[in-house]
Amino acid sequence: MRQFLTLLAKEEKALFTSPIAYVLIAVFLLIMGYSFTLALFVSHTMTLVHMFFQIFTLFLLTVPIITMRLIAEERKLRTMEVLLTSPVTETRIVLAKFAASMSLILLMLILSAAYPIVLAIYGDPDWGPIFSGYLGLVLFAGALVGVGLLTSALTNNQIIAALLSLSIFLLLWIIDEYGHILPDPFDSLLVNMSLSVHFKPFATGSLYLTDVAYFLSAAMLSLFLSVRALAWR
Amino acid sequence: MRAPVVDVQNLVKWYGPRLAVRDVSFSVAEGEVVGLLGPNGSGKSTIFRILTGYLVPTSGSAAVAGRDATTESLALRHQVGYVPEDAPLYDHMRVNEHLQFMANLKGLFGRSATLAIGTVAERLQLQTMAQVPVGKLSRGYRQRVAIGQALLNDPKLLIFDEPTSGLDPSQVIAIRDLIRELAGKRTVLMASHVLPEIEQIANRVMILLNGRLLTTDALAQAVDGQRLRLQVAGPEPMVREAIAAVPGVRSIVLEPESGGSGLRYLVEADQRPEVAQELAAALVGRGLALSELTTVRPDLERIFLQLTRQPSEAAA
Description:
The complex is a heterodimer. By secondary structure, chain A is mainly α. Chain A is 84% helix and 0% strand. Chain A contains twelve helices and no strands. In chain A, helix 3 (49-67) runs parallel beside helix 8, helix 6 (90-112) packs across helix 12 (209-231) and helix 8 (127-154) packs parallel to helix 12 (209-231). Chain A is globular. Chain B is α/β, with parallel strands linked by helices. Chain B folds into two domains: 6-219, P-loop containing nucleotide triphosphate hydrolases (Rossmann fold, 3-Layer(aba) Sandwich), CATH 3.40.50; 224-296, Alpha-Beta Plaits (2-Layer Sandwich). Chain B is built from twelve helices and 14 strands. Chain B has a six-stranded mixed β-sheet with strand order 6-7-8-3-9-10, with helices on both faces. In chain B, strands 2-1-4-5 form a four-stranded antiparallel β-sheet, covered by helices on one side. Chain B has a four-stranded antiparallel β-sheet with strand order 12-13-11-14, covered by helices on one side. In chain B, a hairpin with a 2-residue loop joins strand 9 (204-209) and strand 10 (212-213). Chain B is elongated, with a radius of gyration of 24 Å. At the A-B interface, helix 1 and helix 5 of A face helix 2 and helix 3 of B.
């Protein structure tokens, strides 16, 4: 555990000493603040549904930037050789990188809590969909970070890692659009692979075990494959 | 007999379609300092990466202190201190932070980590650099940090991969001295393509070519003939005539710095033990005063160049 905390501290430091984290947080808050304010003043509705969908899209676009360097950079700079010739398992390295990236995501989500707080101060929002929306975003981000970590483990070029994960995310985002036109059972297969299909219920206040399982299994499978990719050398 | 610290048997490593290490076997006894010599791409780093648990061999086995590189990789890594080529380090960390990080990874925490870092920093003269970010260090200090992290948990085996590459001459001397000092107590494996370095530090040298370790036979074959140095007083033509008369003598060269009581000649002859005796007899028999007759140790550089020029023949 102490070794894991050492690795986590190192990842956190690497993440938060680079300007990328701050730029991402700033951009995230700027866009969220703009749309929240606009939506609130124009529609006068006490809901955060539109905000959750916006965060969903922002995560699709920003998670590749957070995860691209995780392993690819260490491979390129050969610091992975330093790590993996020390008595450390690949699993610990991958989990530390995952946890550090998730901490940045969680920080963004915590900062976005200003919006529900504003709603609570000036009105009486329905907390159910807000909690489920946040839970959905955390699970969704976990799956994205897992996949991003995997693509970073497959190459030592950060740009390729980012493009690869972005392509996967975009494909899984829109995969259900064309799924409906396929014959059975391919239609349901493609629809069930969709990120947005599984996220929608969370944002609108419905909680299904299948959606939780979808994001959890995507995260776990990609973390497992990342460990294998790191061990394959 | 004590078990060797390093035991490599029939090691083979393929990188996709490329064979990087071909059936390499060797062992290193405790306290030995062994140099691995070979041109770039000969497989030195691959062997080291297998011995540090970073790479998995395609076939064969490699063990350090009885720990197998494939099945007991983590336990093996506790036994090895590795200084990779070009010292890859985390540039954003300060020197003491980096050492602390590596100490923690090696399972040292709290007081034991502080103690280990203090000892290493003192030994490698890193105290004044403790707060400097690694990315801002000179190449020499960077190498010291890399060596420092390898020493933290006092490993049984130290592995240096091209430890002086990219250093300026004064740094090269400092790092060489350091390795020599460290080698006094530990088992050391060191790779280099710089011959004098290996010759100065190692007490045994292995030559690696195209992923294959050259056998003693191959080396003996490569040492084609012998060289003898003679100091003889007397007229040069007469001396040359006497030397040339000995069967097996191939060439006679007058050494440029020779002078004083006699001239110094470098004689190349066939690999026959009697040549020296016959040379002495021939010179003394002609009444020439022979004041020195020594065999010039086979020059590793000569062997190395000879072998690397004809890699296919040498490795065959």
